[in-house]
Amino acid sequence: MNRRKFLQQTSSAVAAVTFVPAAAANLTGKGGAFRVGFLTDTHVKPTAVAEAGMRSAFRHANTLKPKLDFIINGGDSIMDVLKASREKVQLQWDVWNKVLGEENKLPIYHCIGNHDAWGWQMTDPEVKSDPLYDKRWVMQQHGMKERFHSFEKGKWKFIILDSAQENNGGYIARIDEPQFSWLENELKSTSTESYICIVSHIPIVSFCSAMFADKNEPNGDWKISRALLHTDSQRLTELFHQYPNIVSCLSGHIHLQDMVEYRGIQYYCNGAVSGDWWGGPFKGFAPAYAVFDFSDAGTVKRTMINYL
């Protein structure tokens, strides 16, 4: 049996999606070499509801049993800075850093979200020339040297992409050419004995991207915005198909939850810590975060945690 077929069969056999209330989140963790909390779309802002919600999510993740080994922040840490003044941007980051410093004791790896990029919807020349314009402010706050990066844990390599690019005052879901070249080299340089998990804020493959839209085209065709699904999905999935050790891809952005298996790779969209931007459930999905069990055999199991 070839390696790809083996990975496909074993991944399909163990992939699971479980929804549990916070009170029942005493997970067994069996079959996992390590556990990861995936907390995405926190969208914190200086309000009592948002601050308390973020505090509850990170406190819950830090006290989960069996314990998490680390956290991946899936992006959109703060509410929105696409057209916010410097003062409002700083207020949002102040809340994020305060709560994170008080509630999180676990190692954390960051992915940049579209709402984390400052000034894309502003026309003021002073903003465009500011040293913190674009993604430099979020990188400073997270202590990131690069927009995209990788790290290893056990037999696994995690590749974290930067999937939102400025586009005529808005944004488009794709990776830029320097990042694509870096990704190609990163995949080539990874041992075939290692398993790979790829993280992007915006989904590369997802059914949720279609379900997010409120309207279809007049003729009934599905309408998927370039801001909701990677426009370079075909290019990326063709690249991924060359590497049988790519097992899973994790994302957020949509605030909904799904799991799609495409060409032997599991694509997980993981809801939102903020739910409906701190207004309760979004389209039936409560505020939540995901827990992933990664095994030495190259399998992945997801559990969704409704933490409130």
Concise summary:
The chain has 308 residues and is of the alpha/beta class.
Structural commentary:
This protein has 8 helices and 14 strands. α2 packs parallel to α3. By secondary structure, it is α/β, with parallel strands linked by helices. It has one domain: 4-Layer Sandwich (Purple Acid Phosphatase, chain A, domain 2), CATH 3.60.21. The longest helix is centred in the N-terminal third of the chain and has 18 residues.
List keywords for this structure.
single chain; 308 residues; alpha/beta; Purple Acid Phosphatase, chain A, domain 2; six-stranded mixed beta sheet; 8 helices; 14 strands; disordered N terminus
Q: Topology of this protein?
A:
Blueprint: H1 3-14, E1 17-21, E2 34-39, H2 48-62, E3 70-73, H3 86-103, E4 108-110, H4 125-128, H5 136-142, E5 149-153, E6 156-160, E7 164-167, E8 170-173, H6 177-188, E9 195-199, H7 208-212, H8 233-240, E10 246-251, E11 257-262, E12 265-270, E13 289-294, E14 300-306
Parallel strand pairs: 1-14, 2-3, 3-4, 6-9, 9-10, 10-12
Antiparallel strand pairs: 2-13, 5-6, 7-8, 11-12, 13-14
Helix pairs in contact: 2-3
CATH architecture: 4-Layer Sandwich
Q: Return the CATH topology.
A: Purple Acid Phosphatase, chain A, domain 2
Q: Report the portion of residues in β strands.
A: 15-25%
What oligomeric arrangement do these chains adopt? single chain
String of helices and strands? HEEHEHEHHEEEEHEHHEEEEE
CA-atom Rg in angstroms: 19 Å
Helix/sheet category: alpha/beta
How many strand units? 14
**How many helices?**
8
What percent of residues adopt helix (DSSP H or I)? 25-40%
Mean pLDDT: 91
Task: For the largest sheet, list the strands in their spatial order.
Answer: 1-14-13-2-3-4
State the end-to-end distance. Answer: 45 Å
Biggest sheet, open or closed, and with what strands and sense?
A: 6 strands, mixed
The number of domains is 1
What sort of overall outline do the alpha carbons produce when their principal axes are compared? globular
Query: CATH homologous superfamily?
Result: Metallo-dependent phosphatases
What ranges have pLDDT less than 50 throughout 5 or more consecutive residues? 1-32
Name the CATH class: Alpha Beta
